[in-house]
């Protein structure tokens, strides 16, 4: 059976690495990015094609994958002027690997379905190291048949795919897990500030955390950047604010408190207002440090 032609939209921190893995795996790839120069540079490096619009990309593809910033971008790319729906055809599969609201995922699935286009919501976790290594965890919502069709692609992009349920459930789990990750990072940041104040050797602290009861993926990824106060963006702070907002909307709809996520969101907003929105969300450390300094 011939491999499906893939159209890939969104060549940012995550998407560029994911698309590169698909090209390396031998898929016939067409790319589109809002900044055309980014797409052209990627195509030159990886020997793939560039489309002028999402509609043109869809016309050249059997499967379209998107990973962009927010729901508004996803909607515009799919159903806006010159969107995927304009160039797509019955039988096409769209896979959205962005993080958007579950409600929007379901709505877009319905709109595409009216044109015979299948839709999966499949957000990911693992940050840019996982995207580069092809070891992402993929949270997929959609039909069994559509996930089976997407499976060979997911095997290139990730080491684990979890079928979370119906369309939209991938997004539901993603925003909840991101709220957990952000809250974990906030606790880690506060612990570092306490440790510094107590005169703790931070190298010793790091060694004890590593593999111990306090270890976590956030500790592995964020501890050293917080210690050094260097925040190369693996996952931008403003993007994490957007995801935590989506988790808080879920909680509010069910009238369920999500207090730690809410407090963490406040910290991230403070850090963003101080100019850290485009760096890694480990920079929420700066908001806690500013609070600690103000209290002295």
In summary, what is this structure?
The protein is an alpha/beta fold. It has helices spanning about 15-25, 35-45, 55-60, 70-80, 85, 100-115, 125-135, 145-155, 170-195, 200-210, 215-230, 235-255, 260-275, 285-295; strands spanning about 5-10, 30, 50, 65, 95, 120, 125, 135-140, 160-165. The chain folds into 2 domains: about 5-165, 3-Layer(aba) Sandwich (Rossmann fold), CATH 3.40.50.720; about 170-295, N-(1-d-carboxylethyl)-l-norvaline Dehydrogenase, domain 2.
Comma- or semicolon-separated keywords:
six-stranded parallel β-sheet; 296 residues; 2 domains; 9 strands; three-stranded mixed β-sheet; alpha/beta; globular; N-(1-d-carboxylethyl)-l-norvaline Dehydrogenase, domain 2
Topology:
Elements: E1 6-9, H1 15-24, E2 29-32, H2 36-46, E3 49-50, H3 54-59, E4 63-66, H4 71-79, H5 84-87, E5 93-96, H6 102-113, E6 118-121, E7 124-125, H7 127-133, E8 136-141, H8 144-157, E9 158-165, H9 169-197, H10 202-209, H11 217-228, H12 237-253, H13 259-276, H14 284-295
Parallel strand pairs: 1-2, 1-4, 2-3, 4-5, 5-6, 8-9
Antiparallel strand pairs: 7-8
Helix pairs in contact: 1-7, 4-6, 9-11, 9-12, 9-13, 9-14, 12-13, 13-14
């Amino acid at each position: 059976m011939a491999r499906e032609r893939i159209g890939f939209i969104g060549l940012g921190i995550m998407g560029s690495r994911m698309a590169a893995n698909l090209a390396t795996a031998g898929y016939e790839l067409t790319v589109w990015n809002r900044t055309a120069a980014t797409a052209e540079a990627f195509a030159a490096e990886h020997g793939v094609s560039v489309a002028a619009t999402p509609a043109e990309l869809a016309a050249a593809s059997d499967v379209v994958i998107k990973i962009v910033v927010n729901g508004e971008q996803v909607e515009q790319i799919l159903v806006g002027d010159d969107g995927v729906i304009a160039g797509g055809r019955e039988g096409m599969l769209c896979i959205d690997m962005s993080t958007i609201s579950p409600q929007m995922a379901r709505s877009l699935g319905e709109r595409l379905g009216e044109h015979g286009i299948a839709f999966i919501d499949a957000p990911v976790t693992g940050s840019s190291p996982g995207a580069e290594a092809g070891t992402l965890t993929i949270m997929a919502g959609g039909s069994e048949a559509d996930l089976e069709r997407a499976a060979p692609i997911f095997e290139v992009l990730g080491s684990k795919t979890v079928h979370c349920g119906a369309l939209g459930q991938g997004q539901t789990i993603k925003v909840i897990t991101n709220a957990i990750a952000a809250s974990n990072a906030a606790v880690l940041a506060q612990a570092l500030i306490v440790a510094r104040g107590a005169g703790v050797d931070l190298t010793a602290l790091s060694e004890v955390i590593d593999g111990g009861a306090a270890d976590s993926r956030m500790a592995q990824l964020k501890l050293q950047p917080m210690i050094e106060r260097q925040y190369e963006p693996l996952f931008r702070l403003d993007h994490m604010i957007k995801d935590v907002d989506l988790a808080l909307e879920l909680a509010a709809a069910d009238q369920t408190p999500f207090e730690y996520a809410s407090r963490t969101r406040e910290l991230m907003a403070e850090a963003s207002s101080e100019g850290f929105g485009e760096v890694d969300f480990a920079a929420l450390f700066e908001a806690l440090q500013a609070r600690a300094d103000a209290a002295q």
